[in-house]
Amino acid sequence: MTEPVRTKPNVLYIHSDQHNPLVTGCYGDNLVRTPHLDALAAAGVVLDNAYCPSPICVPSRMSSLTGRHPHENQVWTNSHGLDASIPTLAHAMGAGGYRPVLVGRMHALGPDQLHGYADRLVGDHGPNYPGNPGADHGELAGTTGPHRVSLRKSGHGQNAYQVHDEDVTAAAVDFLNRTGVRRRAGQPAEPFSLTVGYMLPHQPFVARREDYEYYHARIHPPRTPEPFGDHLHPHLRLWRQRCDIVEVSAAETRRARAAYWALVARMDVMIGQILTALRANGLDRNTLIVYSSDHGEQVGEHGLWWKQTFYEGSVRVPAILCWPGRLPAGRRCQHVVSSLDLNATMLDAMGCPALPHSRGRTLLPLLRGDQDVIWDDVAFSEFCLDAAGAGGPFPVEGVLQRMIRRGPWKLNYYHGQPCQLFNLEEDPRERWDLAGDPGCTAVCRRLQDELLDGWNPDWVQRRLAELRQDRDILTAWARGVHPPDRYRWELNPEMDYLDPEQLS
To answer: CA–CA separation, 120 vs 487, rounded Å?
Structure first.
């Protein structure tokens, strides 16, 4: 039985964590096995130049929810909570007649773990409150952050994030199966909104041997290696020193990259299970499917790992939209877009009210090929850390950085340090920094003026310090009161491990 076409579509929004788009078949990777994402791309539209609001988890995710830039949310780090009074994508869905359901990852901090979702079937593995105990990764302790240990402890075994995502997949499939049962029974068929939040392919760079072995035998080294030296941008040189990635061995590189490719492939398998349940229950005909990620992963390119930079591997994200009969199949969009635009696009498709202060722009006219569309090819991203609260490998003076991509140009602004400027049409692998080129002075000045318009790094720095003081009290409160983590998935330390005998 096939679902009849209705005015309001179902929406299936799948959001992964740390997926470099170039490690996907439909984005040109001939090694990785991603048949389900590739099929989704063939049936829909692929955005080739989509950018995240921040190359780090929480600020990017909160911006994707609200349609606002991190400085407008005042959420810049993984320790900042989103104000519950700011309306989100889920609030707008609810206001438009949907009952939005979330399964899995959201990565919000604070008492509001729904932010507009009517129900949450699986939670995050981390604490709901700053100050509550963090996850114990057992043998793989320390491998989830920007630390060299994540490269040393890489290979085949088990990543607890995969276990989490298997639970998320099971809950999502069950939701679709139960929805199918109700509709086949003739019960009211209200359109659904299901958001699926995955942890993969976020490090630890550890994958089960059944997936890992194939890539370990075939993985290639980074295509844009960058030896350490004085020629590096000052921030990136310091970053590599603080993270202990001045030099990374060929063996570590091979293991970590093989595991990352394997984790992407395993995530694709799970996405396939969800899409199969959608079709099996006759729910696919009028469902808008959106796939994206919160940020990318450097996987050794430019001598860098993880995210936290404005290189394409870190700040670009995959974005695929499929809506049978409403969006063209097999189309690629080269325009510059932001994850904030995906927010506005879903609300437009659902006929829900637009978020009043969103910076997002609906992509529907552009993707349909409407002739009168004028699109501004621009996207912003920002990465800011409090000096005193940074800790770990972060610079003691803090980080105040913002990126603008306009047309072929990308400018990376580092407060108190030189900018970087790249022409991505001529130099897609970002090998030639043109910021010091006299012929690019006017371009650099124009982009910097636009980047700083409405974004004041001195104000950001002050707000970061003020928020740290607030966070100190909230952290001490949680440590003393032990508020219950209502939406928390139980991650046990035995879920994370490396097999004792590794492939060589």
So the answer is: 8
Q: What is the CA radius of gyration of the chain?
A: 22
Q: Which string of DSSP letters, residue by residue, matches 388-436? A: HHH-TTS-TT-EEEEEEEETTEEEEEETTS--EEEETTT-TT-----TT
Q: Is residue 260 part of a domain?
A: yes
Longest dimension (CA), the chain: 70
Number of domains the chain contains:
1
- Write down the pLDDT at residue 391: 55
End-to-end CA distance of the chain: 51
- What is the Cα–Cα distance from 98 to 90, expressed in whole angstroms? 9
196, 197, 198, 202 alpha-carbon torsion, rounded to 10°: 160
Q: What pLDDT does 371 receive?
A: 80
The answer as to whether 81 is a domain residue is: yes
| Residue-by-residue DSSP string for 366-395 | HHHT-TT-----EEEEEEEE-HHHH-TTS-
Residue 492 forms part of a structural domain: no
Task: Please answer whether residues 206 and 498 qualify as being in contact, where contact means their C-beta atoms are separated by less than 8 angstroms.
Answer: yes
Cα separation, 427 vs 33, in Å, equals: 27
Q: State which H helix or E strand residue 227 sits in.
A: none
Q: Is residue 495 in a domain?
A: no
Q: Judge whether 125 and 162 are in contact, CB under 8 Å.
A: no
Residues of the chain where predicted confidence (pLDDT) is lower than 70: 1-6, 388-396
CATH no. for residue 155?
3.40.720.10
Q: How far apart are CA 461 and CA 482, in angstroms?
A: 30
- SS3 call for 89: helix
State the SS3 of 284-308.
Answer: CCCEEEEEEECCCCCCCHHHCCCCC
Extract the tokens encoding 399: 């980080």
The packing angle between helices 339-350 and 57-66, to 10°, is 30
The set of residues, in sequence order, having a beta carbon less than 8 Å from that of 467 and lying 6+ positions away, is 74, 80, 386
The gap from C-alpha 110 to its chain's centroid, in whole angstroms, comes to 20
Domain span at 50: 10-483
pTM over 0.85: yes
CA–CA distance, 111 with 120 (Å, rounded to integer): 14
Residue 270 buriedness (CB in 10 A; 0-12 / 13-18 / 19+): buried
Q: Which of 11, 8, 7 is nearest to 284 (CA)?
A: 11
Confidence (pLDDT) at 1 = 40
Note if the bond before 483 is cis, omega within 30 degrees: no
Cβ atoms of 262 and 27 within 8 Å: the answer is: no
